[in-house]
Amino acid sequence: MQFLFTLLALSAVPATVFACEGDCIVGITNAFVSNYSNPIRIAMTGMAHQISDLLPGQPDTETAMSYLQPLLTAYKKQAYQGMEKAIFPSYFHGKCLDAQGNEPDGCPNPDCPIVCGTPGSLVHFYSQLRFIAYNETFHTLQALATPGTDAYQQVEKAVMDAASSHSERRRSYSRIYPRVLSNAVNVAHNNKNSGSGSGSGTGSGSGTGRNSVPSTRTRTEDVVTNPASSKILVPVFLKRAQDVKSGLRSIMAQAHPLLGEACGADGAEETNGLPNCSWEDAMKAYILSFP
Fold first, then answer.
1. How many CA atoms lie within 13 A of 91 on its CB side?
2. What is the extent of the structural domain holding 150?
3. Locations of Gly residues compositional bias (predicted)?
4. What's the structural domain count of the chain?
5. 0.85 exceeded by the pTM?
6. Using one digit for the tens of pLDDT, what is the confidence trace for 168-179?
């Protein structure tokens, strides 16, 4: 008798529809993270092109992309957690109940006009859900691409190592330059002194002197004025290194605008529909597949 009373009492209470939980949360979060793989690839490709232009030797895009791998790896590690928190429970949470504690028509499916955590609410407010996913993606990516992060430091090291390897021949030349210049200057000095003497024929421009003096002068002038000399090369190389670092900082700061370009953003991302990062029909159908 007590059991029957309990059943009757429970039947008098309106059924409460639970919010998107468990598999629903995991599935929707993973769907957005997966959908953004291609826009991120497009943005990273744009960054790789610029890195290639920045480096001496201009490596191909695939090679330049490999320098960005630490950024992509770090993003993949953080993407799910950040996306889930941004959607659930930061914006969509709780059960769909009106002021009287009743479930409005359309809750939980297919179209719930109250912001809550049911599939119907996610569908009704899909424009906001779409923007939340975009906003979280670019914020995570941009934060990782900021100087000082582990990902940024690893990218910078890879790029600087590439720049250094292309300059190895110049640095090798700078190491032998002091001896080359010293020998050339000594020969030129000796030839100048011997020109005031007699019997050598050096100053007449004939014989051995004709062959040696122009050759020595050419070598001396080339070494002194050649930008590959140590007194010029080392500061230039150091300046070049600073230019590469500065250029990389500017390129990494474009993670947000490049992602926006890939998504079709126009400066009003919250309302413009993000045409290339919407997936509206497919996502709505997927969301409504959860009870």
1. 18
2. 18-165+248-287
3. 196-208
4. 1
5. no
6. 544 544 444 444
